[in-house]
């Protein structure tokens, strides 16, 4: 099974790079972050406490989720909804619970089995979900650049308010802290992973470097 694991913090370019790489290599792609965001969205909608691991685990096990070009949650296209500020603020709290991670890791492995491999992006793919991946990449970038990228995602017009960038930077640094220090499956550089800093590089340059490793 040919599987490429791409990990890294928010705004590092994982989604953009993995999409381009999947197109280049003709492989399927799974955005595991979207899966955690779907659980967070469902919790917010149903009033489930983001600190209640068992309840969130039941929520994760019960949801019908399809992650492809679009994100379908219980039949609804939530591709845009899971990228809102409310979900962004809740997802780290939701994803730290072992009950949630256990269910979603199981689904991620099932996805890879069904597709015979592919490109999987997230925060614990090379370290926990697929420790024997064909290739492990840890994609990173400076906090300021990541904040700018994420702020642009929030504004459909592509216009960025400096105050929004500042707030976004604080948010991603807070999430970095939560993700890196959580007890279960923390964000880290997996053994054998190649670290790529995308701060001042184009998507094409990063994709070329990864493709050359295969």
Folded structure, characterized:
This protein is of the alpha/beta class. The chain contains nine helices and eight strands. It has helices at 14-25, 32-46, 53-62, 85-95, 98-115, 125-129, 143-154, 162-181, 203-212, and strands at 2-7, 29-31, 65-67, 71-73, 76-77, 117-122, 135-140, 194-197. Helix 7 (143-154) crosses helix 8. The model has no long low-confidence stretch (mean pLDDT 92).
Task: Record the strand order, biggest sheet.
Answer: 2-6-1-7-8
List segments where confidence is low: pLDDT < 50 over at least 5 consecutive residues. Answer: none
**Fourth-level CATH superfamily:** P-loop containing nucleotide triphosphate hydrolases
Continuous helix count: 9
State the end-to-end CA separation: 13 Å
Count of extended strands: 8
Give the helices and strands as they follow along the chain: EHEHHEEEHHEHEHHEH
Oligomerization: single chain
Keywords:
214 residues, alpha/beta, Rossmann fold, five-stranded parallel β-sheet, three-stranded antiparallel β-sheet, 9 helices
Could you provide a short overview of the structure?
The protein has 214 residues and is α/β, with parallel strands linked by helices. The chain contains nine helices and eight strands.
